[in-house]
Write a structure and sequence with these properties.
It comes from Croceibacterium salegens. The protein is built from four helices and 13 strands. It is mainly beta. The strands form three sheets. A seven-stranded mixed barrel has the order 1-6-5-11-8-7-13.
Length: 181
């Protein structure tokens, strides 16, 4: 399965959304250069307050552009970066990946999937009432489906640009389900 990057974004401040740009630099073990969520230890403010020494497994946020179409169908028009993602993708079912899957972004960068982004109330606060609920669904077995993208850590750094290909580089032999991180 291959896909492509339709947008990249970063923000040096802790704001909900991120600013789209032409390219971002991924740094091994840290995340996106110049992004407030980059670092070896957790950078999300709510987590820093509780466990500041925890390793950062949320260095890069990837979201599938197909979600934007779903949200538009229920009245929410979004642009890349609006949900705080660093990489907006097309053509890969991110939510169906296994934990530990490695994705090559562009020519050099390699990220490893760590889990799901857990939608939070800030989605309603910043996008509009009901937006968070629109990023959730129920599976046939009754379990909750979180559609707000996936999180990853940077294994190998490099520049990532809008239009770059995404290649699935490695899939664990045993499927490890994605859980919120």
């Amino acid at each position: 399965m291959t896909g492509r990057i339709i947008a990249v974004a970063r923000d040096e401040a802790h704001r909900f959304g991120k600013q789209a740009c032409d390219s971002i630099e991924l740094v091994a073990g840290l995340g996106v250069a110049g992004d407030s969520h980059g670092g070896r230890t957790v950078q999300h403010l709510s987590r820093v307050a509780k466990t500041p020494e925890t390793l950062n497994v949320r260095q890069v946020h990837l979201i599938h552009s197909e979600l934007f179409s779903e949200l538009a169908d229920v009245g929410f028009t979004l642009v890349p970066g609006a949900l705080g993602e660093n990489v907006t993708t097309e053509g890969i079912d991110l939510l169906d990946l296994s934990r530990g899957t490695r994705l090559q972004l562009g020519d050099e960068a390699l990220v490893e999937v760590t889990g799901l982004r857990n939608p939070c109330r800030q989605i309603d606060d910043n996008i509009g009432k009901g937006a968070m609920a629109a990023t959730l669904d129920t599976a046939p077995d009754g379990s909750l489906v979180r559609k707000a993208g996936i999180m990853a850590v940077v294994v190998s750094g490099g520049e990532v640009r809008t239009g770059d290909p995404i290649m699935i580089e490695f899939v664990p032999p045993e499927r490890l389900p994605l859980e919120p991180v």
